[in-house]
Amino acid sequence: MIYEMTVQVRVANMTEGQRYYETLLNRPPDFNPHDGFAEWELLPNCWLQVAEGTSTEGNGPIRLGVMDLDGERTRLIKDLNIEHFEIFERDEVPVRWATFSDPWGNRLGLFEYKDEEATYEKLQQAVRR
Fold first, then answer.
1. The whole model's pTM is what?
2. Taking the CA atoms of the chain, what radius of gyration do you get in angstroms?
């Protein structure tokens, strides 16, 4: 039985990396066990680890669900100086999505459900866990 998950990205400079991910996630890390490492619990038992080291090109993307994809794109372009990135959607797919990279080449992304009821249901599931 799988009961927890961690995903790790690596950054060349931990000070800059932590600041970048604090801005991306809108909060400080939940856990800093030692130098060169920070962790955020994004959902119950789902952790994003940022570690100092050499990033792996072509990894990911790690996509994060958001309620307002257009608003988050605007915020990230402004706050993190990310180049404008495209939002995609297809009729047969229930979400809109976008992909971008952090300064170390880690591929990241965002998505939002097209249907407000689906978004509400996902939020309720996350709260119940």
1. 0.83
2. 15
